[in-house]
Design a protein that fits this description.
Layout: H1 3-21, H2 25-37, E1 40-41, H3 42-53, H4 58-70, E2 74-77, E3 80-83, H5 86-99
Antiparallel strand pairs: 1-3, 2-3
């Protein structure tokens, strides 16, 4: 495999992980929470999730937050979570817009 092909394949793998991270309603709700507030603490996210899904197990919230961070969707800055990069923000904004708004 040529170097150009390797970097292309690596890019595809990174994109696949990114989109895999979006494949769960809880993770989409977390992303929407962070997008709407620009940054969110763990407790902000839990409050948002509990309004939507009812009582949340802290381990479940941690699992989904960790997946979003490891897959490059979110970054942790201090005690807040933010969308990882400009490209991610643009892609996610379109996806969340398609989900429609919900007044809570």
């Amino acid at each position: 495999m040529k170097i150009k092909e390797i970097s292309y394949v690596e890019g595809l793998e990174k994109a696949a992980k990114f989109f895999e991270a979006l494949g769960h309603p809880i993770r989409l709700a977390i992303i929407k929470c962070v997008l709407e507030s620009r940054e969110a603490s763990w407790s902000d996210i839990v409050k948002h999730l509990e309004l939507l899904f009812g009582r949340m197990n802290p381990n479940t919230v941690n699992f989904h937050l960790t997946k979003l961070v490891l897959d490059g969707v979110l970054e942790k800055r201090g005690n807040k979570y933010v969308i990882a990069e400009k490209v991610a923000r643009r892609i996610l904004a379109v996806i969340v817009e398609e989900l429609g708004s919900r007044d809570i």
